Amino acid sequence: MATVGNTYLTLKDKFAQKENGKIATTIVDLLAQSNVLIEDAVVRECNEGSTHKTTVRNGLPEVEFRKFYQGVSASKGEYTQITDTTGMLEVYSQVDKSLADLEGDTDQFRMNEAQAFLESMNNTVQENIFYGSKATNPAGFDGLSVRYNKISTDKNSIGYRVLDGGGTGNKNTSIWFITWGDLHTHLLYPKGSQMGLIHENKGAQTATDANGNMFEVYRDHFKWDIGMTVRDFRSTARIANIDVTALDGSSPADLIKLMIQAYHRIKRFAKTGNTVIYCNETIETYLHFQAINKANVNLSIENFAGKPIVSFLGIPVKCADQLRNDEKRVVSA
After folding, report:
1. How crowded is residue 19: how many other Cβ atoms within 10 Å of its Cβ?
2. Can you name the residues that pair with 214 across neighbouring β-strands?
3. What pTM did the predictor assign?
4. Quick one: angle between helices 22-34 and 11-18, nearest 10?
């Protein structure tokens, strides 16, 4: 399991390469501040337009010993083909031209005014990585919770990578062990298009107010075509059904035990990827308290990319704001 600082080209790296100048840097910084996935997510171009076909092996070929002058039968593995789609996320921002010109640095003023739009797009992307569902929003893409949505004891199933934290109501959250990489989980963008968030300066344009009267504005267009595929489900795990109301009670979920189980269920399959643990602020705070307890040797405070964060068996634990505390119980398959 590789960690932060390896050679994977992440989404943040891609953003930073797209254009030069203050505005581009501002966009990258704004995205990274409110979306920790930007620092880690690997992104790849779709292989079929706006969709991406992935072949997943779900069965090994039969092999056998043979004797001299005796043949063996032909065999093959079992495969399933999965098609993932991308969604188009767009928004326009505009500011009064006269007001922007008064500020001196017009471009920076426009970007400051667009910050709320960018943050909203960022939050939507992060939320959909975890909770997106084409069943409820056909224009979007399927996130991780739709895929890791059942608990199973079958070691060959995706449900074996979903662990039960014991919560029974709808005040639950999850901890995710996500392994990013070409052979693991990665984000998508349509074939032949530009990767990531695209900023287009539309310049000065004429707008109308509520009464139909015209005035001049500066307009910016922001567009983010994005999807996700899980090429090897065995390298990502979910600890579901963590009752957040019970964490300070007498019988909270044994998160350390569950995290050790999750670690070992993906360990063999995650070696070629970059594994990161994601949780929300409630769980991150709880784990931080556990980390300063010297008896918890699996948790520690370490520096990753110059930042002190909680680490579990050398894997960074990061706070993803869009992970909810009101998840419904995940049941057995």
Report:
1. 13
2. 208
3. 0.84
4. 160
